[in-house]
Each structure stands twice: as structure tokens, then as C-alpha cells.
Design brief:
Among the domains are: 81 residues, no CATH class; 165 residues, no CATH class; 98 residues. The chain contains 25 helices and four strands. It has a four-stranded antiparallel sheet with strand order 1-2-3-4. A hairpin with a 3-residue loop joins strand 1 and strand 2.
């Protein structure tokens, strides 16, 4: 790969590049590992971020909030700069600055506790738009809010306080940018506290309280969260059995949804009722079916797994479960069928890579036939381009891209940029096509920015034919002063 600083700049915003350069210079890339297909790295920011780069098609990803498919983040920039410049990586860690504590005051009664909690949560509104501080503020709110919740009394009044505050939080979440889930984490602590308090109270009495809160609809699945934690965390067996009976006897939407939590509880406690309930509910609830598949897999009943799952492999969750859990040594033929079926429906790079590994291991002589079949059966242009890139069939990628030059959804410039790094000849071919497209516009336009960009890329790739192109334009458009000036300047520099 020929990664350059110019290539990296073209992938993102100038400010992201500058920040990535700062990370590179401060040696924030803490690990860098390569195999035949992938580069994996870790970058130290506000926390440790994972960066992945595919060496075949330069697809990149990072688990930070700033990353998007079109504009890469500073963490990826830092990793690319390490690759381009041969920089060193660091194993050191940096001490985080101490955060300013929020004073909550001494809590005297429930009213003061409520005021302090709501004031604390609403304080983040002052930082909206100031993103360098906003998310740090949220983390501090989570820490200080946890302290307030720890002061709740362990009685019925404390229980109602936790649930009422969680209900208030439901409405408050509609006004908050909670993209990293910090506020929802704090709301969950209120639910956990309510469950912990309820463990020490009679189950029938608790259920009467629960019913008051389950009668209404809320914004952020308040009811589902409460029941999920009841089944998942409650030690009050009477309360759990009452809720389980509701799941078994009621067919309204809420209790049907809750059956998966009930089955999780039965599975967790190794209750003999699990298999019966899961078989009964699994046909209509894919989450319960997946639990049942895990259950049979743990019992080494793989034939039963295939019996239940194979007819439902068209459901993506069941299909995902099968490709992750089937033993390749025993079921490699089914895995091959499954991976190819998935690719036929929708191109997915992981499916292609795994299918390639299966054929390399078990039927290596047939792999070329499979790739030709996949190419033949892929009609979507986007998918075919991506398929060709991953297979390293860059000539095919250029051929398909040539038919999509005027099809806006395809990022032609992005592919040209990648091909120039991955395969010089393919990069040159595509840039020539782009130059031809721009030449077609010259007669009726004085806008040459894209034209010069493509010409300069061909100069960088040392394409000798651009001299002939520029000389022909020099003769064809003698009256276009700016064009002639640019041509002469570039001819002099060749």
C-alpha cells in the first residue's frame, strides 16, 4: 500500500486531520497489529478506541462517536499516519485531569433529595453545544447522581421515590443529547434501586405498586425496563412468579414482549419449565428461539439445533446465530450454503471473507468457480463494486465504476483514491475515465477544479499519457486563457 499524507487528508475534515496529526505526534497509537487481511490498532483518547482497516479495500472503522463512513475520525488519521510515516507507537498512559466535583449538599428529606437530583440532571443543559465539556459533565452527573440514589431509604417511600424519579427521567430524556447513554445508565440505577428495595417487601404488596406503573405508557420503554429488571434482578420470588403467570396467561402486546424476559429468568435459574415455555413461544419470538438454540448447544444437541434453526435461517438473527455457532469441522457444507445465501441476498464483507476461508480449508479448488458465480449473481452495482474490491479484482471494480460515472450515489472519487493506493494501474485507469468525463464538460464550462485534481493525481501516479491529453487540449481550446495557463504550468513541471 502507498499511503500518503495527501491521501489521508482527502478522507476527512481539515480539523480531524489536524487533531489526528496531534495524536500521531504525541504517540497516542498504543498498539498496531497486522495479518494478511486486516490492520487493527488502539488509540488513546478520552478512552481507548479500536481502529480497524481492511487491507483489501481500505474500509475503515472506529468505535468512537465522531466516526462515520464518509469522514474518518482523528483516531483513524493517527493510525494511517503511523502507517504512512513509520511512526512509533506508545505503551504509556496519561493521567486524566481531575474533574470538578458538583456539590449536591446534605440531603435532609425526600423533597430535598428530589430537588438536588433534578437540578443535577438539568445542569447539563448549560453545556449543550460545548461538546468538549458536555460529555465530561454527563460523566460527573452520573457519578454524583449515583451518590444521591445511594441515600434512598429502603422502604415503600424510597421505592416510590425511585420509580417516580425514573418516570420523570423518561420525559427529561427527550430534552437531552444522550448519545453515549450516560443519562440512561443513571435512570437504570433508579430501576435497580427500586428492585433492590422491593426484595425486602411482600411480593403481593409490591405487585400492587408495580401495577400502578404498568398501567401507563412512557417515552423510553419504562414498562419494559421495569419488567426486564424484575425478571433479571429481583430476588423476590413471589413477585417474579406473579409476573411470569401474566406472561403465560395474557396475550396483549406488552406481556407477549415480556415472555423473553420470563424465559431468561427460567433459563438463568435452571427451572425445568424453560424448555417447555421456550418451545411454545419460540416460533413467534426470535429472541426466545435464540435462547433455546443456546440451551440445546450447551447440551450438545446440535441435531436439535439444526432441526429448529435451519428452516428459519432466512431470519437474519437466526442466520447470524448459525454462522457464529455451527462447528465448521462438522457443518462446513451447511456453513458454505448459508454464507453464499446471505451474500446472494445482500453483500457483506464478513460473509465473503469467511466463505473464502471455508473454501480454502475444505474445497480450495472450487473457490474460483464460487467467486465467478458470486460475480455473475450480483446484480446491484454497489455490491458488485464492493465484492470486486474485497476479492482484489480491481480491474472489475474499474469496469463497473466506468458504468456509474454519472450515478451520484457511488463515491467515484473515493474509489479512485483507494485504487491509487491499492493498485496503481487500476487507479490510473479510473482517473483517466474521470479526466475524460471532465473534458466533455470543458466546451461549455470554465470550472476546472475537478479536472485539475484528476490531472494532478495522474501526474503523481506518473502516468505518461497525460502529456498527450494536455497537448491536445492546448490546441483545441486556445481561447480559454485560464485552461491554457494551467496546462502550460503543468507541462513545464513534467
Amino acid at each position: 500500500m502507498m499511503i500518503t499524507e495527501e491521501f489521508i487528508r482527502s478522507l476527512t475534515y481539515p480539523e480531524y486531520f489536524d487533531r489526528g496529526m496531534g495524536y500521531f505526534k504525541r504517540r497516542r497509537v498504543t498498539s498496531l497489529d497486522e495479518d494478511e487481511d486486516t490492520i487493527k490498532a488502539r488509540v488513546r483518547g478520552t478512552k481507548s478506541y479500536r481502529v480497524t482497516i481492511d487491507k483489501h479495500d481500505l474500509e475503515m472503522s472506529c468505535n468512537c462517536m465522531a466516526f462515520s463512513g464518509k469522514h474518518i475520525c482523528k483516531h483513524i488519521v493517527a493510525v494511517l499516519l503511523v502507517l504512512a510515516k513509520g511512526g512509533k507507537i506508545s505503551k504509556t498512559t496519561k493521567t486524566k485531569p481531575k474533574k470538578k466535583k458538583i456539590k449536591t449538599g446534605k440531603i435532609i428529606d425526600s423533597q430535598t433529595l428530589t430537588t438536588n437530583f433534578k437540578t443535577l440532571v438539568r445542569s447539563q443543559h448549560h453545556y449543550l453545544g460545548r461538546w468538549d465539556f458536555y460529555f465530561d459533565r454527563q460523566l460527573e452527573i452520573l457519578r454524583q447522581g449515583s451518590k444521591i440514589i445511594s441515600k434512598i431509604s429502603h422502604d415503600e417511600n424510597g421505592l416510590r421515590w425511585a420509580l417516580d424519579t425514573a418516570k420523570w427521567y423518561d420525559k427529561e430524556l427527550t430534552k437531552i443529547d444522550d448519545s453515549d447513554g450516560t443519562n440512561q445508565d443513571l435512570q437504570w440505577q433508579l430501576f435497580f434501586k427500586a428492585i433492590k428495595i422491593s426484595d425486602g417487601i411482600d411480593g403481593n404488596k409490591i405487585w400492587k405498586i408495580w401495577e400502578e406503573y404498568l398501567e401507563k405508557e412512557y417515552n423510553f420503554n419504562f414498562k419494559d425496563n421495569l419488567i426486564e429488571l424484575t425478571f433479571g434482578e429481583s430476588k423476590n420470588k413471589k413477585l417474579v412468579e406473579i409476573a411470569g403467570k401474566k406472561c403465560d396467561t395474557l396475550d396483549d402486546g406488552f406481556w407477549v414482549r415480556s415472555r423473553s424476559y420470563w424465559c431468561q429468568r427460567l433459563l438463568k435459574t435452571k427451572d425445568k419449565r424453560f424448555e417447555e415455555r421456550a418451545v411454545g413461544y419460540g416460533d413467534n419470538d426470535v429472541n426466545i428461539l435464540l435462547m433455546l438454540l443456546d440451551f440445546y448447544k450447551s447440551k450438545n444437541k446440535l441435531d436439535r439445533v439444526i432441526e429448529l434453526a435451519w428452516p428459519k435461517r432466512g431470519q437474519f438473527q437466526v442466520s447470524d446465530w448459525l454462522v457464529k455457532n455451527l462447528n465448521a469441522n462438522e457443518y462446513y457444507e451447511k456453513l458454505m450454503i448459508l454464507r453464499e445465501e446471505r451474500l446472494t441476498r445482500l453483500f457483506n464483507k464478513e460473509d465473503l471473507c469467511q466463505l473464502r476461508e471455508l473454501y480454502r480449508k475444505y474445497k480450495s479448488s472450487e473457490w474460483e468457480q464460487i467467486t465467478e458465480r458470486l460475480i455473475k449473481n450480483t446484480s446491484d452495482r454497489h455490491s458488485l463494486i464492493d465484492l470486486a474490491m474485497v476479492l482484489g479484482r480491481y480491474d472489475l471494480a474499474v469496469t463497473v465504476l466506468a458504468t456509474t460515472l454519472d450515478y451520484p450515489p457511488v463515491d467515484i472519487d473515493g474509489y479512485a483514491n483507494k485504487l491509487a493506493v491499492l493498485d496503481t494501474n487500476s487507479g490510473i485507469k479510473l482517473y483517466r475515465l474521470l479526466v475524460e468525463r471532465e473534458i466533455g464538460k470543458i466546451r461549455n464550462s470554465n470550472y476546472y477544479k475537478n479536472f485539475w485534481h484528476y490531472i494532478d493525481e495522474l501526474r503523481r501516479l506518473k502516468d505518461k499519457k497525460i502529456v498527450d491529453v494536455l497537448r491536445l487540449l492546448l490546441m483545441e481550446y486556445p481561447a480559454k486563457t485560464k485552461l491554457i495557463e494551467g496546462i502550460k504550468q503543468r507541462l513545464n513541471n513534467l
